[in-house]
Amino acid sequence: MASTFDAPDRYDAGAIMGGLYGEGIIGLAGAFDPSLADRLYAEIMAIFTEVKDVPGGALPRGPARWYVEIQPERLSDFPAIASHPWFVAVCEAVLGQEYRIIEVGFDIPFPGAADQPWHRDFAEPEATTAGRRLNSLAFNITTIDTRPDHGPFEIAPGTQWDTFEGCPMGMFPPADLWSRYEARAAKRLPQRGDISARSALTVHRGTANRSAEPRPVLVIGVDAPDATNGAHHDLQATPAYLASLPPVVRGHLPARVVDALTPVVQNHVIDGLLAPAY
Q: Which residues are paired to 73 by β-bridges?
């Protein structure tokens, strides 16, 4: 079970927005008991084994690195995560009270995963380029105590506002800009029980996993009402599961209602992530 938390108003909206509009990433250490991360690890690895040979079930994100989208009810602790006061406070501060959870998945860099090219997760929307506003967030929860040799996530703070002219998919800056990101690069070494939130537009990359262990990370994508990222995902839930959720979760989960869960078939192969970094 997750630990007991303070009320949402403990978390200051100004500090949340300052972090996400400034560096582009914030976190809360010790948000959950480490046992939650242990359960996530077991469930994620079991699901990966189940879908890795299903067409579209696991998509490559570089050598020895995979991304899998899943249904929230496959994770026993999803309600505890999505109802955590910090999670709720961050979503409301940046995305407004009508935020929508539109993606649940996990990324696994296995031993041998290489440095990814610097990238953002999708092209900047007009809300950001013209409106100077963030309308989506990505939350990450590690399932292991991350060490430098695990291939930690690396981010270039403040680069969510960078504009790339004519780059592939609006995601991959040209190599002559990489020195900017390398100069700003900050590796993140989260521990079991920690949670982070970031703008998916902040330039980042996965680094080489030189350990003998996989590093599974849970990913939860959240949109403001005007964002359109949900169109790229197939969030599913059964009626019984939706009925079991607390209102603070159910009211923000626009899942496709199904009688029985089916594997999420992903179609979004990102070719730029399959190329080696240089």
A: none
- Characterize the bridge pairing of strands 236-237 and 256-257: parallel
Q: Provide the pLDDT for residue 6.
A: 44
CATH topology of domain 13-258: Jelly Rolls (2.60.120)
Residues whose CB is less than 8 angstroms from the CB of residue 100 and which lie 6 or more positions away in sequence, other chains included:
222, 223, 224, 225, 230, 252, 253, 254
- The structure's pTM equals 0.94
Please name the residue that has the structure tokens 């699901």. Answer: 47
Among 131, 90, 120, 94, residue whose Cα is nearest residue 202: 120
End-to-end CA distance of the chain: 43
Asked whether the beta carbons of 97 and 80 are under 8 A apart, the reply is no
User: In the chain, what are the domain boundaries?
Assistant: 13-258
Q: Are strands 195-198 and 25-28 parallel, antiparallel or unpaired?
A: antiparallel
Q: What is the secondary structure of 90-130 as a DSSP string?
A: HHHHHH-TT-EEEEEEEEEE-TTPPPPPPB-SSPPPHHHHT
Provide the 8-state DSSP code for 259. S
**Residue 99 · residue 91 · CB < 8 Å:** yes
Q: How far apart are CA 86 and CA 6, in angstroms?
A: 9
pLDDT score at 119: 95
